[in-house]
Amino acid sequence: MGTSVNDVSPGEADVHFSGIDRNAVLQALAAVLPPTCLLSELEDLRPWECDGLAAMRQLPMLVALPETEAQVVEILKICQRMGVPVVARGAGTSLSGGAMPHAFGVLLAMAKFRKIVRVDPVARVAVVQPGVRNKAISEAAAPYGLYYAPDPSSQIACTIGGNVAENAGGVHCLKYGLTVHNVLRVRGVTMAGDVVEFGSHALDSPGYDLLALLTGSEGMLAVTTEVSVRLLPTPQLARCVLAAFSDVVVAGEAVAEIIAAGIIPAGLEMMDQAATAAVEDFVHAGYPLDAAAILLVECDGTPEEVAEEVARVSEVLQRAGAGEIRISRDEAERLRFWAGRKAAFPAAGRISPDYYCMDGTIPRKRLGEMLNAIAEMERRYALRCINVFHAGDGNLHPLILFDAAAPGEQARAEAFGAEILERSVALGGSITGEHGVGVEKIDQMCVQFGENELRMFHRVKAAFDPAGLLNPGKAIPTLNRCAEGGRQHVQGGNLPYPELERF
Amino acid sequence: MGTSVNDVSPGEADVHFSGIDRNAVLQALAAVLPPTCLLSELEDLRPWECDGLAAMRQLPMLVALPETEAQVVEILKICQRMGVPVVARGAGTSLSGGAMPHAFGVLLAMAKFRKIVRVDPVARVAVVQPGVRNKAISEAAAPYGLYYAPDPSSQIACTIGGNVAENAGGVHCLKYGLTVHNVLRVRGVTMAGDVVEFGSHALDSPGYDLLALLTGSEGMLAVTTEVSVRLLPTPQLARCVLAAFSDVVVAGEAVAEIIAAGIIPAGLEMMDQAATAAVEDFVHAGYPLDAAAILLVECDGTPEEVAEEVARVSEVLQRAGAGEIRISRDEAERLRFWAGRKAAFPAAGRISPDYYCMDGTIPRKRLGEMLNAIAEMERRYALRCINVFHAGDGNLHPLILFDAAAPGEQARAEAFGAEILERSVALGGSITGEHGVGVEKIDQMCVQFGENELRMFHRVKAAFDPAGLLNPGKAIPTLNRCAEGGRQHVQGGNLPYPELERF
Prior knowledge:
Chains A, B: Its cofactor is FAD. Chain A is α+β, with helices and mostly antiparallel strands.
């Protein structure tokens, strides 16, 4: 989020922790960890003060870098006994502040857990440690013609442990599912120091589905120490269809029509005119700059499957009112088509001192409506917004451009972002598709959920971590916070957009 | 399970409930329900005394048949206040006794919740009440060219509420996923009478994934009152490949090779010689009776996709050592190929007074090994077993044939079944693929899970239902029960099969 930095002031959750004796915790941890696994000097702590949500910074009290599961167990037992918060961290690429440190807590960095335990090509499973990078799993599986499908934009850097914590998505998740659909088993440690196996390599493990519960729990239920993921055969071929539309609503309808025709492409992305203009200057992908919106539709499979799907997609796009339709002729052109989409975030950084990336979801059929609503908000907040969407999933990434140095702009950008999220919920969607809630969207959780749902979340949290020490203050707001914030739950009702039909 | 009936004696969980005042409960419920919604006479209770696990029978104390969610809330509040167990029931087709009544409890029959609330063909979602039959959803969606994919064998009778409770599977789940992958949102009522919305129609609802937690929870966390399911486009065409093998191990390897080749068929089933012989006598499907095992491979999609997949499947099967390969020429032949597979259970009933259907899962590559182990057990227990498998999922349905009237046979059948399940776990699989644990496999849960996992299950249960009133005595054994039963956890260790490499 650019250059501006808010030092986070201790919130309600922190009051309990202010009496923690830092030296006593340091001593206790030093007794179970070698010196290279424990950081306590200011200069060593500084690099850990934020994750991908760089606008929010907080020095951790201490950083632990364990090397073994047994050390993780010891660290958690000590922190549990001494009432010390623990924030687990992978590569720190979270865009919602999920790994932001706690002022009175231990940052549990899993960077040393980077072993690929085994790749089983027959069972099509990889067993890896949580600090293994997403992309490294596919690299290890490549000799067997296999890969790991979920592909967050940060896949070169982000780790599978963080992917599990955030239930990470990506372009390919439309066809191949989110992290939760591609993880078979997680081994983890609860705050009490108990090692628990969640899920199994077998179909439909009996008992409650704690694996799904853990996936996307934003590091609040357990610390992951080993992950088994499903591998898929690398598609023989991929081609990309690029379609230009003169109207955003018509482009949105084309997305719904592709899905309605029973086609699930390997990727289905949308960019508006402001986005194509921003990236074209940067990477020269050759996008049609006069189009109000473009769609990128990826088809993968055997050559025969790809040929057939490309033909069907093109036919639907034509019928839906596309102007120009281009089909990538070779791998180089396919990568060029995608280069622009993948450069959208850095391109926003090039044309604006700061930007704020949102992550709401809406039903696909409402894409056009949402784009028009955002255009109206641009005028009202006097800020530009460029729009890139995982359109097939109805997952929006509006990038609100602002200058934190200009008085009032950051506050306007935040209000703009909050209104997009609240409108997403009112349209039948949600406040996050894949980036998580973290600290960033915790107030919007009060809009998304009612009291009964929030109460259930707190009860489930207490089942795993009764003292509330794992990643406190993230993801799930207290009922008090929602009541005091005055935000109204809109999912079950129809505020603040009474004109919208509830789906 | 045939004709023999064990009246269930009150277990450890029932001791707390023996002081319940039946008349007081009846009066309290009569105050909130019309007379047609409450059954208390013996002749009215009798039809509800068992589910699909007919060998276990238990009269409920009372049966409530609510018509509205508000009545469900009232019933649960009354039972919570009076400490009365509640067992929710759909169509009662559970094969594991998941809906078996409780002697001191109210059976909450959801049979009157059979409204299809709406079908939205654009969003491809159906919103239905829990008492709607699985097949009825596809029937309602058919005019839009859509259907609901999970297809348990009982789909004509079983209800979506029960499907959610058991995370039901079926032949198509290899390609299209289990219930948990096809349900978007469940509205339910907790034991305290709180209405909670689990999940949403949007991608990846934020907060903990309580929807996945509820799915497959065997009616122990909440009572479902409304379900939103994903609809898929009906495939244009389906064809079935039938392959005969002279060796079960080779047939098992062929299954693993199809999946390893990156093909995910719409169905991939295996039957051994005893199974084909039993069904051939019954439905005359034309199966090759000299084969040690046959595979049925269903390919669906557009005509081009089907043609290509059938060719690839045939090639892999040939290379893997199939003898005869037949490809269905028309819809009539395709249905005939499947008729035998679908008649396997009734065919077992024809050739044996009783049978016991198991539901373990194993890694696909170990199918042949498992079949040989079962053959050895047949000799040791002196009982016949016919084998039908959802082979693509590694989900076994061995049908152990016995005569409950013959002294000792039922006990031998149960020991045989338990050994199959324990061997499944030792091979890296699980004790149930799709039928649930219920009362039937509760002791095997002690083999599948260790203390830490069981303790987490109990904590999660307590988060939803602290008094333990929803479906008590099912699915999750107490730690005491496991300790007293003397069953050893084998997943994490290597007992009782030290010769097996742990996967």
